[in-house]
Every structure is written in C-alpha cells, then in structure tokens.
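so ive been stuck on this for like two days lol. basically i have the seq below and the ligand is magnesium ion, smiles is in there too. i just want the complex predicted, nothing fancy, no docking runs or whatever. if the output looks off dont worry ill sanity check it later, just need somthing to start from for the group meeting slides
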Amino acid sequence: MTIRVELGTSLLARNEEMAAEIRYLCQDNNIFLVNIMSSPGAGKTTLLEKSLNFLKTHIKVAVIEGDIATTRDADRISAQGINAVQLNTNGACHLDARMVYQAFQKLDLSALDLILVENIGNLVCPAEFDLGENLRIVLLSITEGNDKIVKYPVMFRDAQMFLLNKIDLLPYTDFNLAELEKDLRTINSELEVFHVSARLGLGIEAWSNRLISIVRNHRRSES
Amino acid sequence: MHEMSLMAEMIELLGCSARENNIDKIIKVHLVVGKMTMALPDALTMAFDVFKTEDIFAPSAELTIEQRETIAKCRTCGSTFSAPDNYLFICPTCQGLRIEIISGRELYIASFEGEEA
Ligand SMILES: Nc1nc2c(ncn2[C@@H]2O[C@H](COP(=O)(O)OP(=O)(O)OP(=O)(O)O)[C@@H](O)[C@H]2O)c(=O)[nH]1
Ligand SMILES: [Mg+2]
Ligand SMILES: [Zn+2]
C-alpha cells in the first residue's frame, strides 16, 4: 500500500534549532555574536587582524574562523594574542549552526563579550544558514566591482552592516561608488555602511568604535 | 553550491519520517523552493540523484520541485508586488524602499509518498 505523508518540514529546521541553542548560550553569557561574510579574499581576516588590535583594548573578544581547509586564518588571529578557534568544513561552502556550536565548546564563554565569526568566503550559501548571530556584516572589496551587490542580492539584503574594503585601491579601478550606493539603498535601505582599508588601517577605528557601542548597548539592554 | 548539503539534510529528515510512518521505500518527494533561497532546481535534482541510491528510496524515486516566486510587501503603503530579478526592491505604488519579503524564501518538504513496510 502507498502511504502519503504531509510533512511541511523545512530543510533548515535543524539548523534553526541549533541557532536557537547558540542564541540561548549567548544570552546566558551576555555575548554578542557577529557573522562576517564576503567572497574569498575580500579581506575578512585582514580586517579582523587590524580591528582586533583596537577592539581588544575595549572588550573581551574571541574569533571563530571558518575555512574549507587549513588553520592559517586562525593562526593569523592567534598571532594577535586573541583566542581563535578554527573550523574546517572539509569542502562545504558555508558554516552551519552545528559547527559554530561545537566551536563554542572550545571557548570560555563566561569570559567573553563578543565573538566574531569569519564565515567561508562565498557570497551565496552562507546567507541561508542562521548561526544565531546578533549582527550580520558583509564585506565587499573594491577589486570585486560594484555590480556584486545586484548579482548576490540576498547576502546584502540580509545583512545589517556593510563594509567596503580595499578603499585604497579605488583610484586604480572603475568601481562606481555612486551606483553602489544607489543599489544598496534599493536592496537594503537600512544597511549601515563603512568604508575601510584593512591593509592601511583606514576607517578601522570608526567601524570598531561603532561595533563596540552596539555591543555595549546590547549588553546593557540584556542585563 | 549548498544544494548538496540541503539534499543531505532532506535525506535525513525523510529517513526519520519514513521510519515513523512505517514506510519502507520512498517513491515520490515534493519539495517547495523559493527563488530567493538561491537553491537551484537543477543542482538539487542532481544532488538528489546522488543520494537516491540510499536504502530508503525505490530505484524509481522521483523528486518534484515547486518553485515559488519572490513577493515583497511595502512597509509604507502595504501593497504587495513580485520582485524584479535583480531584487532592486522599489514599491511600484509609492516608490517606497522599506519592504519585507513575504514569499520566496521557502525551502521545505511539502509531502512524500512511499510503500508501506
Ligand atoms: N590593497 C588592499 N589589500 C587588502 C586589503 N585588505 C586585505 N587585502 C589583501 O587581500 C588579500 C586577501 O585578504 P584576506 O584577509 O586573507 O581575505 P579573506 O576574506 O580573509 O579571504 P578568505 O578567508 O580566503 O575568504 C590579502 O593579500 C590581503 O593583504 C585592503 O584594504 N587593501
Ligand atoms: Mg580569511
Ligand atoms: Zn508602497
């Protein structure tokens, strides 16, 4: 006999359950969780290296590094004297909540205010996987071109903060800032925008200060 | 490229539900996929063919994918409109930019059929 089952179960349901567990852990420990996404090489790790120097003097921060393979990025962060956990997805193109939950087990949560997660370099897949984060940041670098906003709209639509990196290279490209701003407004009118050069350290203090104040406001409202 | 892991997840969920419902071999799966999930039907079907060799499926098992359009609702005037392909959301009624997505992010197993064990 044939049986028909009306299921209605989301393929992301179990990820969302794990994300809820992470939110619970963060609430319990008064931790602010940030998910940083970009295409490969946009400068996530460089941005973290530069910003951590500043952040660590104000708040207690740890980093979770997502990569398909190697511990290179976590090593770069550890070299700054920051606690870093490396996650390797062994081929998967995004981090999921289960992996981040495992990384949480390796951190002393009670001693932290902020955890920064560097997602796998990819502008498509990570957008679908909630990590239980409080803030989503997308990074775009000048050399990728301003059309990436309209080519990968979901990523930019779901973020709350946008960092335009490698601003030092602007004079050498045909990157169109005006078009970028127009497209950003129509895809996500509430996005907060910062221009930075992680390489030269430009704009790093401004966005770090903003992050610190977001974290502090959040902690105040939670406690 | 996340179609592979989405399919792996679908197989897990189907496996559990088939056991609960005393189903031995699954013959049909109906999946609903919103366009804004960026999960491509062709890539999902290809991934399904890879997993189809698992025990819970009959060799003839079929996956049907129902795609849903992206529909937005204007938070200013309340009108709904289907999103242009470039996702540059501007309300056609009031030119408002503050919008919310009401359809297009679906990604769920609507139903499946199988032979009783
Ligand atoms: N000119 C310039 N180069 C930069 C800047 N930021 C990063 N880079 C360079 O871009 C390259 C990639 O930087 P990473 O920080 O490794 O990029 P990532 O996003 O972490 O890369 P994945 O983790 O592999 O996805 C490196 O060679 C950096 O030195 C910048 O602001 N200006
Ligand atoms: Mg990196
Ligand atoms: Zn309107």
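Chain A has one domain: 7-222. The mean pLDDT of chain A is 95.
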